[in-house]
Amino acid sequence: MKHDRLGDQPALVVEHLSKRFGERIAFEDLSFEVGYGEVFGFLGPNGAGKTTTVRTLGTLIAPSSGTATVAGIPLSAVNGQEIRARISIMPESPGLYQRLTVAENLECFAGLYELDDINGRIERVLRSVNLLDRAGSTCGSLSKGLRQRVALARALLSDPAILFLDEPTSGLDPVATHDVYDLIASLRERGVTIFLTTHRLEEAERLCHRVAILNTTLRTIGSPDSLRRQMFKRTMVIQLREPLDDPARLFGVLPSVERWERTSAATYELTVSDQEVAAPAAAEALVKYGAHILSLAESRHSLEDVYLQLIDEDVEAKR
Ligand SMILES: Nc1ncnc2c1ncn2[C@@H]1O[C@H](COP(=O)(O)OP(=O)(O)OP(=O)(O)O)[C@@H](O)[C@H]1O
Ligand SMILES: [Mg+2]
């Protein structure tokens, strides 16, 4: 996909953006950037402000304060139309005409967006969501997962510079969910810039280059890997056949091991500063000691651990 990129400008630049509805703050003081070709995950609990952020950046509602640049254009009421021509939003509910066929729905929206080469576009987007064979089915006769694919096709019609997907897999069964993952992954391969809100941590972990965790304010931002590293020390789990007689003598002197504890009969968890130093040293010492190693592995924290830890801190702070 080719878009006129203004130099090296990011796809999205958000600075101190806030939105209030009367007394209620939907989101506050958001600052972040999203690069072209990036899949950016926007995570947060119900009511965190995800949809409102999408609606604000998508020019459907005006921010209360702060600034943003969307696809190179400053966010403002007068620029609304120009921004909307460069982006697409797939909302939480697909909003398709149930009695029209898939192709008729897409024709209708392509007309509304005043796009050229309507037939060529429809064929391209249907192919990219694997729905060419259902072009003639009415949307009402499709399963939820297939309707979601039509909604994605609709969002792709205008070849957007930024694609906003608001919980694209909500309410889908595991098979349909994985279908949508595959579609997003193929868009990612093609370099489409995607702003993805989700409750599914696994989805974010799998698809996103970087994620932001929002709970009215931005709690953290970074690649799933860097967030894990920031929040959790690395740990190594060692399972032996028999417990050690004197684990302190063995683990206490290993390089790069900061702490150790026994987590079950013959399982030990070591907090390490450098896994590449600690693992071979531990293995060597255990073998010398005559211990029988069943397994020795780094335990990985998931993005879900990071998320739960942060949201938990917010809950605690409110008490
Ligand atoms: N039009 C509106 N008028 C008043 N309050 C609103 C409006 N839209 C959203 N809000 C409030 O703003 C807050 C954020 O809502 P938002 O829909 O952005 O959350 P969300 O993160 O998308 O949640 P969910 O995960 O449930 O979709 C909520 O407290 C919500 O009630
Ligand atoms: Mg929402």
Helix content: 25-40%
Do you know the CATH topology of the domain at 12-86 and 160-228?
Rossmann fold
Q: Overall mean pLDDT score?
A: 91
- Counting DSSP H or I runs of 4 or more residues, the number of helices is 11
Shape: elongated
Order of helices and strands: EEEHEEHEHHHEHEHEEHEHEEHEH
Q: Architecture of the domain at 12-86 and 160-228, CATH level 2?
A: 3-Layer(aba) Sandwich
The low-confidence runs, each spanning 5 or more residues with pLDDT under 50, are 1-6
Tally the beta strands.
Answer: 14
Query: Which superfamily, in CATH terms, is the homologous superfamily of the domain at 12-86 and 160-228?
Result: P-loop containing nucleotide triphosphate hydrolases
CATH class wording of the domain at 12-86 and 160-228: Alpha Beta
Main sheet characteristics: 6 strands, mixed
Distance N to C terminus = 49 Å
Give a brief description.
The protein has 319 residues and is of the alpha/beta class.
Q: What does it look like?
A:
- By secondary structure, the chain is α/β, with parallel strands linked by helices.
- Among the domains are: 12-86 and 160-228, Rossmann fold, CATH 3.40.50; 233-300, Alpha-Beta Plaits (2-Layer Sandwich), CATH 3.30.70.
- 36% of the residues lie in helices and 28% in strands.
- It is built from eleven helices and 14 strands.
- A six-stranded mixed beta sheet has the order 6-7-8-3-9-10, sandwiched between helices.
- α5 packs parallel to α6.
- The longest helix is centred in the middle third of the chain and has 16 residues, at 174-189.
- The protein starts with 11 loop residues before the first strand and ends with a helix.
- Mean pLDDT is 91; it is low at 1-6.
- The chain binds adenosine-5'-triphosphate (ATP) and magnesium ion.
- Magnesium ion is lined by residues 50-51, 92.
- Magnesium ion binds at residues 50-51, 92.
